[in-house]
Design a protein that fits this description.
It is a single chain. About 45% of the residues lie in helices and about 10% in strands. The two termini are about 35 Å apart. It contains eleven helices and seven strands. The chain has two domains: about 120 residues, Rossmann fold, CATH 3.40.50.1860; about 110 residues, Rossmann fold. The chain is α/β, with parallel strands linked by helices and about 250 residues long. It has a four-stranded parallel sheet with strand order 5-4-6-7, covered by helices on one side. α2 runs parallel beside α11, α4 runs parallel beside α5 and α6 crosses α11. About 35% of the residues are buried. This is Asp/Glu racemase. One of its GO terms (molecular function) is amino-acid racemase activity. Pfam families: Asp_Glu_race.
Length: about 250
């Protein structure tokens, strides 16, 4: 039988062990939700040692229903699927300290959910904000990002609460480039990316995978060493875990 990690040392200060509680809004897809769960707990264990794990609430939406909302551009319905668990765990306050959406595409609900959280004292930790901080810290020369992901994400630069609009805001100041032809957009949307990836690497300073699941199949070796390939889901999950560990 596999051995359990050793128990944490007795007598540790309770404040040292404290970690803020997160509400994870998942289901798009279940694999992406698992990535967030595992990454956050890996960070928690690396910090606390022993059998440390993160205090989390997880709501997993029905992917089939959510993708119907996406396909019909029913963004209010997409947000409503997450609104009930958000309301249940943030009002009255004290049950969770922050809300995390566990997929890039599901951030189409971010604006509505942020407005619903106003007055609760509970922030929504947005993937684009965490990604921008990561890039500025780890790749300070990068200002132009090549974006690969589903059609709806690549086509929507106008929603300031979503992904491209947030990255291009005055707060973050990135320039975001998407595939230049409808044919290339269609290829990426269908997951056929070899030629498009190479083309994006030639005209950008970093490539961002705007689909959580792309990080499972597209790796740095597919791009080469000259242009960093950045998976926002992994960056986001690590960043929210580190946020939760702050005193």
């Amino acid at each position: 039988m596999p051995q359990l990690p050793p128990a944490a040392r007795p007598g540790r200060d309770e404040k040292e062990q404290a970690m803020k509680t997160l509400l994870l809004l998942g289901g798009m897809t279940p694999d992406a939700t698992m990535l967030y769960y595992k990454t956050i707990n890996d960070v928690a264990r690396g910090h606390g040692g022993g059998r440390t794990s993160a205090p989390l609430h997880i709501f997993s939406a029905d992917l089939e229903v959510m993708m119907r909302h996406v396909g019909a551009a029913r963004w209010s319905d997409l947000a409503q699927a997450y609104s009930d668990p958000v309301a249940a765990l943030t009002r009255p306050p004290g049950r969770v300290d922050a809300v995390v959406i566990c997929a890039v595409l599901a951030h189409k609900a971010a604006g509505r959910l942020s407005r619903a959280l106003e007055g609760s004292g509970v922030p929504l930790l947005h993937v684009a904000d965490m990604l921008a901080r990561h890039i500025k810290a780890r790749h300070p020369h990068v200002r132009t990002l090549g974006l690969l992901g589903p059609r709806v994400t690549m086509a929507d630069a106008h929603d300031a609460d979503f992904f491209i609009g947030r990255l291009q805001s005055t707060s973050h100041g990135f320039r975001v480039v998407v595939p230049g032809t409808p044919a290339d957009v269609d290829l990426v949307d269908r997951g056929i990316m070899d030629e498009v990836v190479r083309g994006s690497a030639a005209v950008t300073e970093a490539i961002v995978l705007a689909s959580t699941d792309l990080g499972f199949v597209l790796k740095q070796r597919h791009v080469g060493d000259g242009v960093p390939l950045i998976d926002p889901a992994t960056v986001h999950a690590r960043a929210v875990a580190e946020w939760a560990l702050q005193a």
